[in-house]
Amino acid sequence: MVNSTVVKTLYVNPATGNDKNPGDSKFSPFKTISRALKVSTKSTIIQLAPGNYNSLTGEVFPLLIPDGVLVVGNEGTKGRGIVIEGSGAYQSQSFGWQNITLLLLGEATVMGVTVANLSAKGTGVWIESTAPSLVNNTFAKCGREALFVTGSAKPAILDNVFVKNAVSGLVMAGNSKGEVLRNIFQKNVIGIAISDSAAPMLVKNKLIENRTAIALSRQAQPVLRQNLIANNTQGGVLVNGNANPNFGNKQDNGENIFRDNGQFDLNNATSQKLVLVGNQLNPAQVKGSVEFIALISDLAGHWAADFVEALASKNLINSLSDGTFAPDKPMTRADYAALVAAAFNPVPRRPAPDFIDVPKDFWAYNAIQIAAMGGFVGGKSDRTFGPHQNVQRLQVIVSLVNGLKLPPADKDALLCYSDRNTILDYARTAVATATQQKIVVNYPNPKQIEPSRFATRAEVAAMVYQALVAIKKYSPIKSPYIVSNESS
After folding, report:
1. Domain count for the chain
2. Residue 415 counted as domain residue
3. Exposed/middle/buried for 41, CB within 10 Å: 0-12, 13-18, 19+?
4. pLDDT of residue 1 exceeding 50
């Protein structure tokens, strides 16, 4: 005889339901979730109709979702129009009395609802030493945090939206672990706060437009992979106490992207060094002791490997999404602007440009603005920038000389080039200056400058590195492809 679990579905509709109904069909639904919970057993599905579930409709808070019970609204809309709003007293084993909306027990599941707790110190969902699942929900406007996880909890928090919560979207404390995957944290004071010895996996989340994206304290040890941390008004990740986040290792790159955060991308306020492997962030936006390690898979034996890896180690240049650098492919104007903005962090010398083909949501918008105001790049007469166009070698050389305002050199420096007659008149002084400063890198023939050829990503990396050497920021790298006019 094969044992099987009988799945029972109960229906709830706050507008048309009645708690005296059997609740076994959408034509005779209960009015309240509270009533459905009283008669639910393990493996019960509680199907919610659109509407507001609050004290005015008869709900008694907090709602305790038992082990194995599944509360379902509309996953496709992440619970839009299916709102559970309320607050009730609950005594936590770890934190005493709390005002909460939902308590998830055992392996309970909540999917496709909106949860709100407008109380001044209200929490939307409380999870303590259990292993529930929260999938495709919206948590909004909670008076304190939307979701509090503590004890030895191991929840699965997947594909939810945490927006406009007064203190935090998600708090993880105690010895909690679990998986936080593909969620959006937006316009919270703190997107995610992790404390005590909590060690969750944070993977592929978007933390945008919060005050601080992630705040770590005490002995927190989260693992962060492939998260987007962008446009947070104060900063990206704040590390306090003895927290030790895992931002990647040689076997498993971090691949977190930090972009356009206010005061910092990463602020390590601890006494220990943090090691970041394979992440994208601006070193100028990093505070505290941090070591960057970039792992790029297609540079072995390449003539420019030392230049690229040196820039990558300072997080000035990044691999592509597949972990490669594609050194022999042409570099686009957008990629070039991003590189010089990160490498030189130029002070503004010109008004902000208004390129009609660079919208504000373009990934390199801010970098192009910085590079243009700093004098490294410019647009065309029709107010376009051409971000996807490839940059020429001559353009790179002139850009570096003009952007750094290097003193002009005598044109005799051009005698080392066998094809010097192909250098356009307007650029000859700039090329001579770059040559004298040992900025020009020619591969495979150092005597051929090939000014009109598109510059490869490797060539641009090498010349930007050499420009950093010229202004005495970096130490020289030996290469036979660095042009020297000393023997001319």
Report:
1. 1
2. yes
3. exposed
4. no
